[in-house]
User: Which sequence fits this backbone?
């Protein structure tokens, strides 16, 4: 009976494998953030290429620093949203573990959400360190710098793109 919990109707890949992927994402995310915290002070930056720097930034808000200037309530608000998202995603993975692209998407989003929730609980902010910049971004972002982000944010983005692709493919089949 336990097999039914971990296997979907599609057979093959089970829930534990998707949770394993999410766990690897959390480990990589947290490891990179420990390195940044250990080697960089807030706002330190290392030039890597003409379009990429490693920086240390703290984001108390959400994507693109949304609500970062709020009075502090946003820490717990975004933490709660993250925890709720984790519950919903685990439920969805449990319901559809055999749908590979969908489950891959959900596992990426899950790993990213957990990584950022850990930051919010432990530090009160999310640690960002990947800084891409191009002159053509200057009209939209100060100095052409896209807002700094991290491994968790990258996983969430990859998951969202794959989720859209999964839906497009599903609609196309029907």
Assistant:
């Amino acid at each position: 009976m336990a097999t039914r919990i971990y296997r979907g109707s599609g057979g093959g890949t089970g829930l534990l494998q998707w949770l394993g992927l999410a766990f690897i994402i959390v480990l990589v995310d947290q490891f990179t953030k420990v390195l940044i915290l250990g080697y960089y002070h807030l706002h330190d930056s290392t030039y890597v290429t003409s379009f990429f720097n490693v920086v240390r930034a703290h984001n108390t808000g959400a994507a693109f620093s949304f609500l970062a200037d709020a009075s502090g309530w946003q820490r717990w608000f975004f933490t709660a949203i993250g925890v709720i998202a984790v519950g919903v995603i685990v439920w969805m993975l449990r319901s559809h573990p055999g749908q590979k692209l969908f489950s891959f998407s959900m596992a990426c989003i899950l790993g990213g959400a957990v990584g950022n929730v850990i930051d919010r609980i432990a530090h009160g902010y999310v640690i960002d360190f990947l800084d891409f910049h191009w002159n053509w971004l200057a009209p939209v972002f100060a100095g052409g710098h896209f807002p700094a982000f991290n491994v968790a944010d990258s996983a969430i983005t990859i998951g969202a793109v794959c989720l859209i692709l999964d839906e497009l493919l599903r609609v196309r089949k029907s």
